[in-house]
């Protein structure tokens, strides 16, 4: 079984990362394809992400998933809150019966150097540039995933990554916490993000109610 990583955060919140080594027929038996996806690999990623939901909570009603105008999947009765991410041959999901959640998994790639000014606030750029050059790419990857996870946690779209999703300096380790703040107009909320570096991957997740 290609389970790459799993964490039971507490009794009501769980996450997992799946390394996709199967073909579509493996997932077709248990996961409905709820929208038309023409690209074979994207279709496989979609199926793997949905497969993880009942893998984490066996009573998860995958057939009841709807998709909002912002492209955020959700359950209308909010029996579970969930978030899905995928990149390359990996899919990740987090599910909670009590908290709003967001997750992101990414390959660590030098392309982030080219776009860092688009998603980082000037304070965050100064933090990155103050670090040893050998650590900067990993920090950029963590920050990109952190902002993606915050964006999915919010779920309502129309977010400026550099101005509305703020992170604060942190000590880079193999795993740890990042203090952050979501700011949109008159709404502001502090968040704690959890990150983990695994081989070629960055994983970041958040679980928190909107206050």
Structural write-up:
There is one protein chain. The protein has helices at residues 24-28, 40-56, 112-119, 122-129, 133-154, 161-164; strands spanning 3-8, 13-19, 65-67, 73-75, 81-87, 90-96, 101-107, 165-167, 175-184, 187-198, 201-207. The longest helix is centred in the C-terminal third of the chain and has 22 residues, at 133-154. The strands form 3 sheets. A 5-stranded antiparallel β-sheet has the order 7-11-10-9-8. Strands 1-2-6-5 form a 4-stranded antiparallel β-sheet, with helices on one face. Helix content is 30%, strand content 34%. With 211 residues, the protein is an alpha+beta fold.
The rounded Rg comes to: 17 Å
At CATH level 3, the topology of the largest domain is Ribosomal Protein L22, Chain A
Q: In percent terms, what proportion of residues is strand?
A: 25-35%
* Helix content estimate: 25-40%
């Amino acid at each position: 079984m290609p389970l790459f990583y799993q964490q039971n955060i507490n009794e009501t919140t769980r996450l997992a990362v799946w390394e996709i080594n199967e073909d579509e027929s493996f997932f077709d038996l248990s996961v409905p394809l709820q929208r038309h996806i023409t690209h074979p690999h994207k279709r496989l990623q979609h199926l793997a992400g949905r497969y993880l939901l009942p893998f984490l909570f066996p009573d998860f009603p995958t057939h009841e998933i709807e998709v909002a105008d912002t492209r955020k999947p959700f359950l209308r009765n909010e029996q579970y809150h969930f978030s899905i991410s995928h990149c390359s041959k990996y899919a990740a999901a987090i599910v909670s019966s009590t908290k709003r959640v967001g997750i992101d998994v990414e390959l660590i790639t030098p392309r982030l150097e080219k776009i860092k000014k688009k998603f980082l606030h000037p304070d965050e750029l100064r933090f990155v540039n103050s670090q040893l050059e050998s650590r900067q790419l990993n920090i950029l990857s963590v920050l990109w995933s952190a902002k993606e996870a915050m964006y999915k946690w919010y779920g309502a779209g129309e977010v400026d990554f550099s101005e509305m999703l703020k992170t604060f300096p942190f000590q880079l380790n193999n795993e740890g916490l990042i203090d952050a703040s979501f700011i949109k107009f008159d709404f502001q909320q502090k968040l704690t993000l959890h990150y983990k570096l695994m081989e070629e991957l960055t994983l970041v997740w958040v679980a928190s109610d909107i206050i």
